[in-house]
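Hi support team,

I submitted a single chain yesterday and got back a structure, but I'm not sure I'm reading the token output correctly. Could someone confirm the output below corresponds to the sequence I sent? I've pasted both exactly as they appear in my results page.

Thanks,
R.
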Amino acid sequence: MAKVGWIGLGNMGSPMSGNLIKAGHEVTIWNRTKAKAEAVLAAGAKWADTPEAVAESSDFIFTMVSDGPALHAVILDGNGVADGLAAGKIVIDMSTVSPAESVKASKAVEAKGCKFLRAPVTGSTVLAQNATLGILASGDRASYDKALPLFEAMGKNQFYVGANEEARVLKLSLNMMIGTSMQMLAEAVTLAEKAGLDVAQVCDVIAGSAVGSPVVGYKVALVSAGQYNPAFSVKLMMKDFDLAFDAAKQYGVPLPITAVTRQALQSAAATGRGDKDFSVLVQVLEEQANIKR
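Hi R., thanks for writing in. Yes, this is the structure output for that exact sequence:
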């Protein structure tokens, strides 16, 4: 049984930390809004009043927050994780942030004689609940090996991809593909719909065809119903695309299809759909094609 700290109890963090409890680990948690921690506390977690207190009581400290500034706040600010570290502990960030933001957090952790792993995840909230996520990890290999049993309690597929920021870049690359795939789905569905085909049947055909994929399978029910309750919002996808552009500048890589899809996401946000699931790109294109349903 490991002493585990968990900071960040959003849609992904809550079920993931809960799976660590189910695996028998001692879990201490902190979240900016304590009310969001009630389910995990009811499952057996202990509450800490600050991120510093989480770090003091844990050997492995996980963070899963919304963005780079939030990561820096919980690690670097007063009463943050860095203040509670003692040599030999391992901090594992599972957020989606840029390589540059990650480096700043890593330096603060390693200055305390600790190790920092980058471990963003692939998969939806359903996979988080079922402990079948994919986990991409980079950083010190010996620390990764120590943390692997914890990763296995949360995810089905484990990937160690390098010693530095490789996991950050790979995560952004995957989210680029997910976002651009949704724009392609929007164009295909809208063309077929404009020609008079039934949207639900079109979605079934696409999902069962050679171009079907897990992400298409997750989203066709939303598209068929025309209801876009957020599993992953337009705003979050925009944030990840912008991080991908920053990385592309750093490495000198053009991203033309990603740029077009980013504009489609902007159209969704500008028409009041920033908090909808990013599959609402279908609805945006339907409106542009003068389709109402």
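A quick pointer for reading it: The beta strands are 3-7, 26-30, 46-47, 60-63, 90-93, 115-118, 121-122, 133-138, 155-162. Let us know if anything else looks off.

Best,
Support desk
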